Amino acid sequence: MRNSPKCDCGAEKQTIYHIAFVCPIYAYRGPRIDCLTTSSAFIKWLEELELDL
Ligand SMILES: [Zn+2]
Question: Which branch of life, at top level (predicted)?
Fold first, then answer.
């Protein structure tokens, strides 16, 4: 269990937006349209994230 909402990269808040698009550690590397269309690549990325959101 995490006690802090801070991200592993040092960001103050570990939001889904931060993780998906901003975080230097976890951000999705593919095109952002993938998250709107929930492409298979984006689903795979989500599944491989080992985070409790
Ligand atoms: Zn981060």
Answer: Eukaryota
Amino acid at 4: S
- Total tally of structural domains belonging to the chain: 1
Residue in this structure with the two tokens 């975080």, named with its chain if needed: 23
pLDDT tens column, 11-33:
999 898 899 999 999 999 999 89
Task: Report the separation in Å between the CA atom of 53 and the middle of ligand 1, taken as the mean of its atom positions.
Answer: 13
**pTM for the structure as a whole:** 0.69
Query: How many angstroms is it from 20 CA to the middle of ligand 1?
Result: 9
> Which sign does the torsion angle of CA 6, 12, 16, 20 carry?
negative
Ligand 1 centre distance from Cα of residue 40 (Å): 23
Q: Residue 8 sits in which domain range? A: 1-53
